[in-house]
Design goal:
alpha+beta, Alpha-Beta Plaits, 2 domains, 3-stranded antiparallel beta sheet
């Protein structure tokens, strides 16, 4: 869906990196290594995105680091689009409405770091989560979004992860 609008795979990977989790940051060579791309392709897209104001560029010693510009008027919209593209909204909608009493949902692993690996790792925190039904639900969601989904459940999650949902 998004590939038809954003034809550059490198740009799409960078948008995922920086907009799935606003805390993610990176520098040219590190991003090139992480994405298995050459530095020229990464540099070109980083320059385009920073000139448009979507990324902030900061010099840290000899390195120039980049991070999503949370002050940009389109930041929240871009973040929603990226999360929808990855399939996080589908996972949350399906799991929360049907899997039991889910208190919080965390994204961990590669996608929390902004790496488009194809494996989405989620931690569900809550009581009385129906694990059998959840397994069936995950198979359905995987077919729908075209990515592998790994879900762990717990009563209390105290590790580092990106909070995607919290019961009000």
């Amino acid at each position: 869906m998004l590939e038809s609008i954003i034809t550059s795979k490198t740009r799409l990977r960078l948008l995922i990196k920086f907009f799935i989790n606003a805390a993610n940051h990176g520098y040219l060579r590190g991003l090139a290594t992480e994405m298995h791309e050459n530095t020229n392709a990464i540099r070109k897209e980083l320059n385009n995105l920073s000139e448009a104001g979507y990324l902030l560029k900061k010099e840290e010693g000899v390195r120039v680091t980049y991070q999503a510009n949370q002050e940009h008027p389109l930041f929240s919209l871009l973040q929603k689009i990226v999360r929808k593209y990855v399939g996080l909204d589908t996972i949350i909608e399906q799991v929360i409405s049907r899997a039991g009493q889910v208190k919080r949902v965390f994204l961990i692993g590669d996608y929390a770091k902004g790496i488009d690996s194809g494996l989405i790792e989620i931690v569900l925190e809550g009581d009385q989560i129906d694990n059998d039904y959840l397994a069936q639900l995950i198979q359905k969601v995987e077919k729908e979004i075209g990515k592998k989904v790994k879900v762990n459940t717990t009563d209390a999650f105290d590790q580092e992860g990106l909070l995607l949902y919290e019961q009000e």
